[in-house]
Amino acid sequence: MSSTTGPGEVLAAGGWKNNAELIAEVARLGWLDGRVLDLSYGLGKFWTEFRPDSLVANDLNPDKGDHHHDARNPPFEWHQSFDAVVWDPPYRMHGRPDTKMGHQYGIDVARTKDDILDLIGNGTVGASKCVAAGGWLHVKCQNMINGSTYIDQARYVIDTVAALGDFEYRAPWYLMARPIPQPAGRRQLNPRNNVSQLLSFHRLRVSPEQLPL
Ligand SMILES: C[S@@+](CC[C@H](N)C(=O)[O-])C[C@H]1O[C@@H](n2cnc3c(N)ncnc32)[C@H](O)[C@@H]1O
What we know:
Layout: E1 13-14, H1 19-28, E2 35-38, E3 54-57, E4 82-87, H2 102-105, H3 113-129, E5 131-141, E6 144-146, E7 149-151, H4 153-162, E8 167-176, E9 195-203
Bound molecules: S-adenosylmethionine (SAM).
The site of S-adenosylmethionine has 22 residues, from helix 2 and helix 3.
């Protein structure tokens, strides 16, 4: 299957039911054409609406996907060899393992806030290495409150990619969530974040050093 053709204009924020519907919109722009690498394939839920003809499914967990490399250190033969790379890290900051949804989201192990930011950031760098010149990098994340601190994961990813020098930031995609209501009786201190983001970056065909002054 190549790019899907849905009706109407492609929008950055939609009432999509899930990531698969969002991904299908990304594909409509041609940003998932060619050879695609999913570094955190999980249960493959990104690809139930649109599935690239050529999809390499990786996940650190040996029960998921076909390859089991750490996204932070992809094998050399993958470097610069995919037209699009997707990195959907375990970005939820629960503190303790989530026994209910943990298997699906890769949050069935305890990680600190710093562990998660390390995984998001260094995985983003690893993912970027696999993108061929002219290709696409798509990173999923969600800003959230941790304790009383607002963790702007999107800004962290955008800054990480900007520091690489040869990617341009092309779009945030916004997926609205339907959060489970919190227990009543406690005063709310912060707005509940009910949106996750997919951030899309395009790798330049030449590095900035090669550009004429
Ligand atoms: C949010 S889930 C991905 C869900 C997936 N997109 C799906 O549709 O089912 C995060 C995944 O990242 C995997 N993971 C965690 N650390 C990783 C690493 N260092 N390298 C590659 N995959 C990793 C987890 O096993 C988990 O499956």
